[in-house]
Design brief:
168 residues; mainly alpha; 0% strand; 7 helices
Length: 168
């Protein structure tokens, strides 16, 4: 049990550091901003209680907000991500496929399932994040393009990280 907690704490720290020190400084044409830190919420076990999922989502986003000076935007977006996670999992999965002690990873559930799950979750997070950031529907098309391009790069980075950390 302690090694499991240590694994998640380590994952949290590494993802926050990668996001803050490296990825926050990547902006391609002002349209593409990758947010790899959400991988932490995506790969938590299916058995995690919803209240803990929401707390972890909020705290993770708050960490990014503190380092990025963004006043709660990431905290609200990751809390939203944590909120929709159980619904997305139920939407794309059959009950008999998932086991409570499993984690949503490519190595456990396959590429197809993980890609659908990641694509829905990343698009929802980025859509929420970017529209909260501008807090307006002025420039709707620009914000939508920013959401789509940033989501595409984030999904690619998540898939690559899954293969890099796979034990197979």
């Amino acid at each position: 049990m302690n090694s499991g907690i240590l694994k998640y704490v380590t994952s949290w720290v590494i993802l926050v550091l990668i996001q803050v020190l490296l990825l926050n400084h990547i902006q391609i044409s002002g349209l593409i901003n990758p947010y790899l830190y959400i991988l932490f919420i995506l790969t938590l076990p299916f058995s995690i209680p919803n209240y803990l999922l929401l707390i972890l989502g909020f705290l993770l986003g708050l960490n990014i907000d503190i380092f990025s000076n963004t006043l709660g935007i990431h905290a609200s977006a990751t809390t939203f991500l944590a909120f929709i996670r159980p619904y997305v999992i139920n939407l794309i999965s059959s009950r008999d496929v998932l086991e409570l002690n499993q984690t949503p990873r490519i190595s456990e559930l396959g590429f197809s399932w993980f890609f659908r799950y990641t694509a829905i979750m990343v698009l929802a997070h980025h859509f929420f994040l970017f529209y909260i950031e501008v807090f307006s529907f002025n420039g709707f098309l620009y914000t939508l393009l920013r959401t789509l391009f940033s989501s595409a790069l984030t999904i690619v980075l998540i898939i690559i990280s899954q293969y890099m950390t796979s034990k197979d």
